[in-house]
Amino acid sequence: MTTALPAPIQATTGLTLTDQERREVAELAEALAQVPPRLIDQRAWMDAARKLACRLPARVLEEIRDYRHDPGPDGLLILRNLPVFEDVMRLTPTVPESVERAATPQAAVSALISLALGEVIAYREEKSGALVQNVVPVPGREESQSNAGSTLLELHVENAFHPRRPDYVSLLCLRNDHTGTAGTLVSSIRRALLLVPDEVAAVLRASRFVTEPPPSFSAGDATPQHAVLEGDPDDPDIRVDFSATTALDEDGRAALEVLRDALLDVGAMLVLQPGEMAFVDNRLSVHGRTSFEPRYDGLDRWLHRTFVHLDNRRSRADRPGNGFVLD
């Protein structure tokens, strides 16, 4: 089985904001952070965020719209030179299930850009349904296959077990690890499918797999039997979590190994630095994380994470009161 990590993505990939565009985003984020009730999960605050998102710099909106139309061969969008607001940043959280409830300029950046792409959603059983979540290492959970760990995180579709999994996952870097080398692994089925033999792809298109909920969920059942590749055979969606998806027969197990090797062979490593934000198309791409050594000194790796749906109508029955959180 392939174990080598993909090469880092070049810093020229994606859109780098000009300093003027960075100032414009900062002004919007600071204004949003002050909107009453200054609580991210409240409807009034999110309504204000949705309107302010329309005022993001034109080049940012154009890049997001192009990505929404077609996420490209990697299913990845990277925005660089976003404001970080280091002067008001607190220490990196270390508590389990860490989330952002009170509005901050950093969280406002995540919300603004995510809402320019689609609708921000969350899951009641994961991080108590918070819309902006912290991806931070937690003492005692180093080996966890979750956002709280610091060991190698297997490639996965976010919430692969869930029937309403996100269309996109966003990651905004506030701090990288102390060495500045902790990476987000990203790989697309659009590239990997070229390395998967037709007979193996046929196995992956059959409903002979089940997926368990990740450790970050407080409740949830394994899926009914499902396929790993779904939709157009020439441009399929992918549904797999290599730490939680199990094949029901030997052919399925062998097919998962071939797929994992192919994804690693064509993948890339995104080493996010402060002020960089990445979106991963959760329908086409899997992602993971390299291992790193946290120091728990308040300056460890810290990302903000959001989940985005393109069509909230599809999940309306699962969101009480037409809110943001799926039950």
Task: Give the SSE map.
Layout: E1 15-16, H1 19-33, H2 43-53, H3 58-69, E2 76-80, E3 99-100, H4 105-117, E4 119-123, E5 132-135, E6 153-156, E7 168-175, E8 184-188, H5 189-192, H6 198-204, E9 209-211, E10 229-230, E11 237-238, E12 245-247, H7 250-266, E13 268-270, E14 277-281, E15 285-289, E16 302-309, E17 325-326
Parallel strand pairs: 1-2, 4-17
Antiparallel strand pairs: 2-14, 3-5, 4-16, 5-16, 6-15, 7-14, 7-16, 8-13, 8-15, 9-12, 10-11
Describe this entry's structure for a reader.
With 327 residues, this protein is an alpha+beta fold. The protein is built from 7 helices and 17 strands. The chain has helices at residues 19-33, 43-53, 58-69, 105-117, 189-192, 198-204, 250-266; strands spanning 15-16, 76-80, 99-100, 119-123, 132-135, 153-156, 168-175, 184-188, 209-211, 229-230, 237-238, 245-247, 268-270, 277-281, 285-289, 302-309, 325-326. The strands form 4 sheets. Strands 1, 2, 3, 4, 5, 7, 14, 16 and 17 form a 9-stranded mixed sheet that branches. A hairpin with a 6-residue loop joins strand 10 (229-230) and strand 11 (237-238). The longest helix is centred in the C-terminal third of the chain and has 17 residues, at 250-266. The two termini are 38 Å apart. The model has no long low-confidence stretch (mean pLDDT 93).
